[in-house]
Design brief:
By secondary structure, this protein is α/β, with parallel strands linked by helices. Helix content is about 25%, strand content about 20%.
């Protein structure tokens, strides 16, 4: 005759959660270190031209960007427009923008500020020339053109 044991209550073993806060904080620190924050939202479409001779900027904190291209919102037209920080601007606004950028930096760094022109490759040179003339009037002589590095064969 078979023996029957009384049914034992089986308890589910507990899962150790002591290391869970360590893992969560490790992931949090990882994402905080690797995430970059976009400085401004682009309202213009920019496809940078490619170039064969490029140089990397030393201090990006001393760079002021002027974006020129077609607006991403087609309701604003198809003509190339100038974007300074998070707003559209005209050529006449560039002087105030440069002065504000200089005032925002230390006095020692003001002469080291580079103005980087991010210009769409389909943009006509007329607006770029106007921007350069306005930069010259304000005394912003350190100008840079942003571009993609050309990768390909030389013919």
């Amino acid at each position: 005759m078979a023996k029957f044991r009384p049914e034992e209550k089986k308890e589910v073993p507990k899962i150790g959660t002591a290391s869970l806060p360590d893992i969560v904080f490790l992931l949090l620190i990882f994402f905080m270190v690797t995430t970059t924050i976009r400085e401004s939202v682009l309202f213009v479409r920019i496809s940078l031209p490619s170039s064969t001779e490029t140089q990397k900027l030393e201090k990006k904190s001393l760079v002021s960007y002027i974006n020129i291209g077609q607006p991403t919102n087609t309701k604003l037209g198809t003509e190339s427009r100038i974007q300074l920080n998070d707003r559209f601007a005209t050529v006449a606004d560039i002087a105030d923008f440069i002065v504000a950028e200089r005032e925002a930096r230390d006095e020692v760094d003001r002469m080291l500020i580079t103005t980087s022109l991010k210009v769409d490759k389909a943009t006509k040179m007329g607006i770029v020339t106007d921007v350069k003339q306005e930069l010259r009037k304000v005394g912003a002589f350190k100008i840079n053109y942003s571009s993609r590095k050309h990768v390909g064969t030389v013919k």
